[in-house]
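Let us begin with a simple case.
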Amino acid sequence: MTAPTYLDRIVADHRATAAADSRSLSTCRAAADLASDPRGFRRALADADGLGVIAEIKRRSPSKGDLFADLDPATVASSYEAGGATCMSVLTDADYFGGCPKDLCTARSATSLPVIRKDFTVDVRDVLDARAMGADAVLLIAAVLSDDELAEFQSAAHDIGLDALIEIHDEAELERALAIDATLIGVNQRDLVTFQVDTERAVRMGSKLPDGVVRVAESGVRGAADATVLHEAGYHAVLVGESLVTSGDTEAAVAALRSA
């Protein structure tokens, strides 16, 4: 029998948590409805001057361990905004990435930037929780969701004013995203089974993304040179975490990406 991968373990844990969640949908919806107005995540990327940057607050990773474990979300968020970031991404998974909902709330309160909740969404309540904690968008990973779940969760997000970033890795997942009329699609260059990065993946997929879709390249972006290649491949934005939080100067690192 094949040993469980990082992805298997993470998704299994999240599904177990969702299965044990006794909260009603109406309770979660009521909390979501109390959140402040969304800031327009997709719109900010579509309207960006040049290549947009989604700067990520990321404390650790399952494969590399601590990256910036004791970061202050407000300080990092402010430096991202000062560097010219278009949006922010905040990891809220605790067990594998060291994040939490408070990180998202704190980061969003410190800036005027739209924020996506970066987590493993496996239940409608996860979508509602994203809105309740202040997110402007939610991540839906095609590799871990069924067709019905993708459609249901995107619809739930749109219903409460959230944008939904549909993350794909290949042509088959792109077809699934287009089948639900996704208009915000991210190509993740990291293999979620091995956690290895294929820096050519986004370039290969770029020409396959149709007009009308806001295109985001995720993972493996180390600096302005990588960002330039992805911009030339047709991407509206790059989502960058590890190279920013380990840069030593997050404001300058974001500014360098924006220069692409």
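The second case is a distinct protein. As before, the sequence precedes its structure tokens.
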Amino acid sequence: MRIAVFSTRSYDEEFLGPAFDGSGHELVFLSPRLTAETLPLAAGFDAVCVFVQDRLDRGVLEALALAGVRLVALRCAGFNNVDLAAANEFGITVVRVPAYSPYAVAEFTVGLMLALNRKIHRAANRVREWNFALDGLLGFDFHGRTVGIIGTGQIGAGVARIMHGFGCRLLAADIRENPELLALGARYCTHKELFAASDIVTLHCPLVKDTFHLISDGAIEKMKSGVMLINTSRGAVIDTRAVIEGLKCGQIGSLGIDVYEEEENLFFQDLSNHVSQDDMLARLLTFPNVLVTGHQAFFTRDALEKIASTTRANVDDVAEGRSCLNAIQIERAAGKSTKP
């Protein structure tokens, strides 16, 4: 197959290139995102390899099909940026990488919690200025606190294991119970119960219709005053406007996000010499109790190696006419998967 790799960064070439050596497939690395405007770049290819910020709506997929593209290879787990019904209609197979490294995202999630709680990022900045005062850096013990985990697939389970090791009580919410969490002593409950009892709420659910703006004004009102809120799943699971209001009134005590609902034109690029056009993100960054990172939770060598090798295996399966275990079926778009 001849494959156009969109949204390419240096690390994509570093890991995908060697993974496809000797495969018989030709990779062409392209830095632009795949959108309606960049569609001409896909001409002459059998497949496109895309990431979370590429837009594969109905119009894009129809044009890809007319150009002869028969495979969309996602190098990520989430697929909310793909119109699966349209892909099926136009005869395009969509495959993904469902489990590149749950450890990478789980460990990063807990890193956000620790940094926010103990103000590590603020302390590091102070010390650079020879300010060793401890005022304003007070945190709390994780031991004995209650952590509410929404989405208990592989990543959510990884967070549960780590927080259990800290001595936390675990609450969980998902459409199905994970036996691993039950073995850790976690109790499954409704979102309302989880919000009311949790000192920390961490999100690990996919972005589907039922989880869009799951964290809204109503949800925040049900949370403990001063709650820590963490999101490393998908940006639009959180209503950013509602969260800003929650921060302003103190209902949300701290916020850590590695994803943002309007990240499409921001993340994965250097905009340091540009004037910000995103007022909501600019407002978030003014809060001293907010930590924002640029969708890097997945970013470990182990994860990138797994993404590359799984993408190669997915392409091989489709090219050779085999059934691919990582092909996405239309019914999954209804939100039955627990993996973010």
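The CA atoms of residues 126 and 193 lie 39 Å apart. The chain has a mean pLDDT of 94.
Keep these points in mind for the review questions at the end of the chapter.
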